[in-house]
Amino acid sequence: MAKILPILASLCTIFFIILSLSTVLVIGEDHGFGRSLDRKLLGYKKEKLSHFQFYWHDIVSGKNPSSVPVIRAPKNTSSFGFLTMIDNPLTLGPKMSSKLVGKAQGFYASASQEEVSLLMVMNFAFIEGKYNGSTITVLGRNPVFHSVREMPVIGGSGLFRFSRGYAQAKTHTFDPKTGDAIVEYNVYVLHY
């Protein structure tokens, strides 16, 4: 019995050291209000790169516009300072009658005094297939008269939690009489 006690004590010591180390590895380093986590604990494995292509319909005319001005530009500027809320349809094709896959919800504002450049703040809220209920969030500068504009994807929800990437916008059509526009979006997203 006297020989077994030191062995048991050594085994208990080793067990508690391993248990303590595994707790630190699982929980992460504690900073009081935040800690590092192993992404695998949340079920996140290898990242995937996905590409989405759809058309954004900015309808400012008619009886049921999807873009509504909230703040008008001051009279002493051309357009600098306006803000427009959006609930724009996202469709598979450029025609409004093509399949609806989601809505772009958020706002855009004129953010440049020298050129027509918008600050875009919007969620692409999907309603189709496995992406139903998930969103991709875009926040960035949109110099409207450039042929192709690039804006960062800064996150999302649902299947796009912790996502990042970029969105390319290219004007498909613009009606200067009504102000209505159709913009082709190609969105590249890294997500789990």
Span between N and C termini? 55 Å
* Chain-averaged pLDDT: 87
Strand order of the largest sheet: 1-3-4-5-6-7-8-9
The Cα radius of gyration reads 25 Å
Individual helix count: 1
Helix content: 10-25%
Global outline: elongated
Stretches with pLDDT under 50, minimum 5 residues:
none
The largest β sheet comes out as: 8 strands, antiparallel, barrel
Please write the string of helix (H) and strand (E) elements: HEEEEEEEEE
Structural class: mainly beta
Share in β-strands: 35-45%
Kindly state the number of beta strands. 9
Top keywords for this entry?
192 residues, 9 strands, 12% helix, elongated
Please explain how this structure is put together.
β3 and β4 (100-110) form a beta hairpin. The protein has one helix at residues 4-27; strands at 48-58, 67-71, 83-91, 100-110, 117-126, 135-143, 149-157, 164-174, 181-191. Helix content is 12%, strand content 45%. With 192 residues, it is mainly beta. The longest helix is centred in the first third of the chain and has 24 residues, at 4-27. The chain has an 8-stranded antiparallel barrel. It has 1 helix and 9 strands, in the order αβββββββββ. The radius of gyration is 25 Å and the shape is elongated. Pfam families: Dirigent. Belongs to the plant dirigent protein family. It is found in: Secreted, Extracellular space, Apoplast. Keywords: Apoplast, Secreted. InterPro entries: Allene_oxi_cyc_Dirigent (IPR044859), Dirigent (IPR004265).
